[in-house]
């Protein structure tokens, strides 16, 4: 999720829609990779890097889920930004003094500028930062999670699942491509559309794809194969935000997730799987979208609902078979410092 560079320090949030134009996402990311062989100059080394996320952001949520599932907590530390930001950067306002305790910076922008002085693109999460130099290494969220699965294997926990099994990679790659185009980014193409035609086109593509995915998931428990894969992680983070944000705020209102029985059961199945729902902070999610995107919500009023407790109800997906972690095991509980506050979780209703 992106903030735009701004050198004035003024709060210029809200410039997300360009009147008369279709929304087009800037996908020009820092493509440096952290690999086992260090081919780009950044070898995998436990303790060397810090993953910076916001719990509000679906793209960052992917990285935090994969890190949890693979048990990389000891190898890759986690920095969590607050749910809101100004146009300059995500900030570490959840930490004492508003400074990340490991990187020693108040703004994620500082890590970008440390490597690229005058950096002019968006300051995005997730980002991985080299702790010793304070420089951002990569913000390429799509490649980042694949590398956590394939390049960091030596540091996976015992029993970690294979989220990107080699035999299934072509099918996973195919489905995540359409997921991004029509669903993950499709909700943004609805919400940030600058004219009626582009909105309706994005709306139709979104729900056509959701209907197709519902048909697929009516026959099988997971998107690809009989275990959780990268594809499920990518789909889940959009579904987790659907009723809280995308249905109303982004006008994706043909149906709520809770009105799409197969997808609602699938999403609950994943939510109740260790490593998924325990990363979801409904308060941060709503505060980010409704406070930051002021051209969509100029009053910055954050809705109290919807009631998230339904995420904890039985889903019945076990009847389809499948083994969530394959031959592996679930991750343990999240570390105390990384636990989502109960009042922000599905168990914390009512919030007010």
UniProtKB/TrEMBL annotation:
Its signal peptide is: none
Q: Which organism is it from?
A: Cellulomonas aerilata
Extract the ranges annotated as region (Disordered): 308-352
Task: Give the protein's recorded name.
Answer: Glutathione S-transferase
Please indicate which superkingdom the organism of origin belongs to.
Bacteria
The cross-references to Pfam families, in alphabetical order and at most eight, read: GST_C_2, GST_N_2
Task: Write out the coiled-coil annotation as residue ranges.
Answer: none
> Keywords, A to Z?
Transferase
Cellular component GO terms, alphabetical: cytoplasm
Q: State a single Gene Ontology molecular function.
A: glutathione transferase activity
Looking at the record, the residues that make up the GST C-terminal domain are 165-292
Annotated site residues (Lowers pKa of active site Cys) in this chain: 246, 289
């Amino acid at each position: 999720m992106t903030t735009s560079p701004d050198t004035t320090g003024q709060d210029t949030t809200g410039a997300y829609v360009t009147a008369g134009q279709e929304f087009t996402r800037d996908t020009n990311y820092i493509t440096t990779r952290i690999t086992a062989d260090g081919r780009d100059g950044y070898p995998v080394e436990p303790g060397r890097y810090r993953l910076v996320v916001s719990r509000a952001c679906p793209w960052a949520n992917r990285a935090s889920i994969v890190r949890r599932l693979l048990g990389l907590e000891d190898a890759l530390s986690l920095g969590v930004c607050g749910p809101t930001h100004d146009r300059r950067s995500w900030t570490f306002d959840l930490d004492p003094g508003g400074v990340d305790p490991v990187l020693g910076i108040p703004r994620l922008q500082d890590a970008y500028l440390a490597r690229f002085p005058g950096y002019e693109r968006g300051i995005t999460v997730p980002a991985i930062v080299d702790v010793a130099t304070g420089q951002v290494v990569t913000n390429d969220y799509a490649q980042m999670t694949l590398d956590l699965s394939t390049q960091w294997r030596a540091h996976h926990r015992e029993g970690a699942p294979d989220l990107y099994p080699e035999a299934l990679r072509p099918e996973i790659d195919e489905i995540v491509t359409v997921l991004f185009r029509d669903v993950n980014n499709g909700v943004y193409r609805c919400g940030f559309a600058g004219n009626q035609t582009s909105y309706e086109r994005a709306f139709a593509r979104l729900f056509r794809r959701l209907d197709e995915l519902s048909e697929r998931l009516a026959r099988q428990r997971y998107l690809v194969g009989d275990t959780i894969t990268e594809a499920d992680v990518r789909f889940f983070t959009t579904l987790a935000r659907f009723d809280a944000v995308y249905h109303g705020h982004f006008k994706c209102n043909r149906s709520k997730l809770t009105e799409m029985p197969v997808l609602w059961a699938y999403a609950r199945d994943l939510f109740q799987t260790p490593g998924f729902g325990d990363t979801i902070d409904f308060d941060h999610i709503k505060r980010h979208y409704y406070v930051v995107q002021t051209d969509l919500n100029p009053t910055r009023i954050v809705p109290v609902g919807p009631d998230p407790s339904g995420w904890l109800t039985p889903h019945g997906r076990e009847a389809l078979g499948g083994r969530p972690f394959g031959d592996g095991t679930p991750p343990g509980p999240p570390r105390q410092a990384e636990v989502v506050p109960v009042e922000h979780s599905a168990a914390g209703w009512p919030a007010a």
